[in-house]
Amino acid sequence: MPAASTRLSVAPRRSVGWPVPLAWRNLAARRGRFLRSASAIGFAVLLMLVQLGFQRAFFDSALAIPRRLDGSLFIIDAAKYRFATSEPFSSHLIEAARQVPGVASASPLYAGWFDFFWQNPYDHKRFVVQALGVDPDRPVFRWPALAPLIPRLKAHGTVLVDRRARRFLGMTGSAEKSEINGKPVRIVGSFALGPDFQNDGTVIMSVDTFKELYPPAGVETGVIRLAPGAHAAVVRTALREALPRSVSVLGKPGIVRLEKNFQARVSSAGPIFTIGTAMGFAVGMLIAYQIVYTELSETLPQYATLKAIGYGTGRLVRIVLEQAFMTALAGYLIAVVSGIAIFRLVGGLALLPLQMTPQLALEGLGLTLGISLLSAMLAVRRLIAADPAEVL
Amino acid sequence: MAAPALSQPVVRLDGVGYAYGRGKAANQVLYDLSTEIEAGQLIVLTGPSGSGKTTLLTLIGALRRPQDGRIEVLGRDLAGLRPRERTALRRRIGFIFQTHNLFDALSAYENVRMAMQLGTWRRREMRRRGIEILSRLGLGSRADEGPGALLVGECQRVAVARALVNRPPLVLADEPTAALDRESRGNVVALLRETVAAQGSTVLMVTHDRRIIETADRLIEMDDGRIVADARPRERLYPAEAERG
After folding, report:
1. N or C: which end of chain B has fewer CB within 10 A?
2. Is B35 helix (H, G, I), strand (E, B) or coil?
3. For the purposes of burial, counting CB atoms within 10 Å of the CB of A211, is it exposed (0-12), middle (13-18) or buried (19 or more)?
4. Cα separation of A162 and A133, whole Å?
5. Which residues contact B243 (CB under 8 A, 6 or more apart)?
6. Distance (Å, rounded) from C-alpha A287 to C-alpha A43?
7. Of the candidates A288, A299, A374, the residue with the CA atom closest to the CA atom of residue A331
8. With an 8 Å Cβ cutoff, are B117 and A19 in contact?
């Protein structure tokens, strides 16, 4: 039989052209189920995004002031474990820092988190607020919207208030007078900062006013600007040598690291959000596993048939993974859109910086792909074990 | 892959045995089977239920690992094949199963194309060849419909198309016409005969359909895991006529 012999001697080559998009067709054939599956995964991804979003908001809001400080180096008390803890040091150390070569300016930032009782100018109720004291002649912020308002603080007993503070503080209206610690203050402007997880609102005043309202006040942060050409590491070493060991000299990354360490090791918020994210991941994995497993169970004879006719297991696993990825990606899109809406709603209500940043969206995508990959790898064992002989 | 010589049989069985399970629980289903199957024949494998026909097909189809004896298929000794080589060998075999196992999400043509992707087709050839073979089985106008829109018999014909589309040198078929009406059965058998005649392929088919058996070149009967008869169908179906010549 020449035909057969010729056939048998043909060197194998592979067909060319687009392969049948089986994974997509499997999904598209059952749109209702696809939507339900994607929504279920989306729900788990949303749980993770919300946890991560809150964690980020917690972190970002705590760093809202440090990030706006206009300096290369910062002097803080060595015992300080986060920005918003009261560990004041003597203003003499700021004077000493100014003498260090390479320092162009050293400005004090006074701050209080538990000692300034603001009176709502409308209902006269008192609330603790974050208070910042600055030298109007030595600005410490890189905050364009605030800069033109700072000179107004030269007038004695004047304050700037946070118009994004929680409403019950009464900082959002047009009141011109109020009281802090029982002493009258004049409101000479407002800025937009917003509350964080610790503070409901913020007032900014001059150092003199700060000291008058709270006499035991001390410097919380020394903001160091470098002279042109000065090297930060060199100046930092010089400052450490010139200043007592009771204070630390940090760069901005050091301040951020301080806050991160606080969240990870001290605060309960870090572990809570991490556990919340992990739970979302576990829920997502369970859902995704169930989806892939069910889908696979229903089409196992078909896949076993493909195995029998010559499809390699790896190629079939790839199809199942593609299907799992597509479902997870659809779920991810649902989660991101829902997350943006939830962040807007909750962010608006809680006045917290909840935002679907590209980084957060990317983290969510990574976790989503992790969910789908792990769950599919678990479920696909059934496909790997499928015996093509059982089909015949 | 080495090609068998011209005279080499497509399938060679030598003392083949097979048991399910191990030890005391072992259930021997095939005993010392030896035979050769030449190219270009339609061979029917028949016998009562449980006689080992399907097990033998799965062994020849490299779907199971051989246990006892030696099995050569398309010039390859199955005992020495690695999993990847067994998979590659199966690409050269057309399988027709009792159940069609088509993907509901794919059209008839796409189901056939799933097999073509394992073959040696160029993109332009694929659609033409897929439609051609479906048309040959009376499904040309329904090529773009999914299994959900097709009758069971039509789905089975799509499965036949899937098995034959790559023009395999060996076709293994397990009751391929069981779900078909008379006309469809005729179409399928005609196509299998055509495959044998035009391509020199070998078709090894399990069936109890007397009309198909009559058209076969060779009839192998099995019982209790053994080959009990191996002859031309006429000799088995009409022994008196065969004797008269």
Report:
1. C
2. strand
3. middle
4. 14
5. none
6. 10
7. A288
8. yes
Find how far residue B87's CA is from the centre of its chain. Answer: 16
**Chain-chain contact of B84 with A312 (C-beta, under 8 angstroms):** yes
- Taking alpha carbons only, the member of B54, B48, B91, B39 closest to residue B195 is B39
Query: Residue B52 corresponds to which tokens in the numbers above?
Result: 């080992």
Cβ–Cβ under 8 Å, residues A106 and A97: yes
Pairwise CB contact (< 8 Å): A392 & B61: yes
* Token representation of residue B95: 């399988």
Asked if A107 and A94 count as a contact pair (C-beta separation under 8 A), the reply is yes
Closest CA to B219 of B238, B234, B200: B234
Please answer whether residues B121 and B144 qualify as being in contact, where contact means their C-beta atoms are separated by less than 8 angstroms: no
> Which residues of chain A lie closer than 8 angstroms to B91, CB-CB?
12, 309-310
Within 10 Å of residue A221's Cβ, how many Cβ atoms?
28
- Strand, coil or helix: A178: strand
Decide if B46 touches A, using CB distance below 8 A: no
Name the phi and psi angles at A268, rounded to 5: -80, -15
Dihedral pair phi/psi, residue A49, rounded to 5°: -65, -40
Nearest chain A alpha carbon to B174? A392
* Secondary structure of residue B17 in the 3-state scheme: strand
**Residue A307 carries which side chain, given as an amino acid letter?**
K
Instruction: Band the pLDDT of A392: cuts 50, 70, 90.
Output: low
Determine the average pLDDT of the residues in A329-357.
93
Residue of A nearest to B196 (CA): A4
CB atoms within 10 A of CB A230: 18
Distance separating alpha carbons of residues A391 and A323, to the nearest angstrom: 23
Q: Is A112 helix (H, G, I), strand (E, B) or coil?
A: strand
Higher-pLDDT residue of A101 and B198 is A101
ipTM of the modeled complex = 0.90
pLDDT at B4 over 50: no
> Angle B171-B176-B179 (CA atoms, 0-180°, nearest 5)?
165
The residue to which tokens 């946070």 are assigned = A162
In degrees and rounded to multiples of 5, residue B104 shows phi and psi of: -60, -30
How does pLDDT run across A66-92, given as a tens digit for each residue? 999 999 999 999 999 888 889 999 999
Bridge partners of B231, per DSSP, are: B219
Please state, in angstroms and as integers, the Cα–Cα distance from residue A232 to each residue in A96, A108, A199, B184, following that order: 17, 19, 32, 87
Would you say A328 and A368 are in contact if contact means Cβ atoms under 8 Å apart? yes
Q: Is A299 helix (H, G, I), strand (E, B) or coil?
A: helix
CA distances to A255, B21, B23, B90 from B68, rounded to whole Å, are 74, 14, 15, 21
Which residue shows structure tokens 């599956």? Answer: A37
CA dihedral sign, ordered A25, A31, A33, A39: positive
Q: How does pLDDT run across A259-277, given as a tens digit for each residue?
A: 888 877 777 888 888 899 9
Alpha helices in chain A (DSSP H): 2-9, 22-29, 31-62, 64-68, 92-98, 207-213, 232-242, 252-261, 269-309, 313-350, 358-379, 381-385
Joined together, the tokens standing for residue A305 give 């048939």
* pTM of structure: 0.79
* A20 chain-B contacts, CB cut-off 8 A: 106, 110, 113-114, 117
Closest-CA residue of B relative to A310 is: B91
CA nearest B225: which of B83, B48, B30, B56? B30
Instruction: Choose among A47, A186, A202: nearest CA to A113.
Output: A202
